[in-house]
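Apologies for my clumsy wording, but are you able to produce some protein sequence, whichever is easiest, and the tokens describing how it folds?
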Amino acid sequence: MAKYQKRHKKNFSSEAQERRRYLIWSITIPFALVLIIAIWNYRHSLLYYYYVAFDKEIKKADSEKSKHDARNILLMDAHSDKSFGIDVSQYQGSILWDSVRFINQKVPIDFIFIRATMGEKAIDSRFQKNWDGVKSINKLRGAYHYFRPNENSIKQANNFIKTVKLKPGDLPPVLDIEERPRKQSMDSLRVGLKRWLDRVEAHYKVRPIVYSGDSYFTDFLEKEFKDYKLWIANYNFWVESPKAHWDIWQFSEKGSVNGIKGFVDLNMYKSDVEDLEKLSIPYN
């Protein structure tokens, strides 16, 4: 009897373990499968969401690009008697200069301005490569300085002079002023701008060009600097022609040019390229 009870207890224990294993596997495996399927569906849904969102962004960017391209082409067609150019800096990255010929594969590029310096000490990291690149494709080239209002104007002029070696045939140096001062008055800023312009003009023996936004120039600079050649930025779609006092109009910041990744600024000179060449540094 004791042996039977032991065998029965052993068999009962074995059967209980089997039932536990069966219950564990019968619950665990389906649960694991459900979990795996749920995770897969979630990841699939998430990837699909990102794909759709990315696709929308691509289409939006393409639509935005098409909108700007259409406007730029209409403007350039309407002013076919003008000359057109671009301006570049390190933000355009590595430029394939051999491919830089036309805007929207249609309008010839006549001139190119290149950022050279910023403030008292900074130099555009791609200035020399871009400067040499423009020369290699035989386009009119010019260099500009980004003015920092809260830094010494003479030191800024010297930074530009040390960096940029203009030669006969190059366009005049450009002073780019866009920032409002934080530590000084607008009167002090205007004094600093004039000091930069005078120092640079004395060095290169040519009168610089002043670049600014339309409203910035009208509000703060027009009275003192109206006698300079002006390069004015205005991207508003409703503006169809340059104002009379704009020598160069930067009409778009979203131009398309082969050889340059992404967008590039587009500019229109008020006359043909032969007239533009008259501004360049003379041959002795």
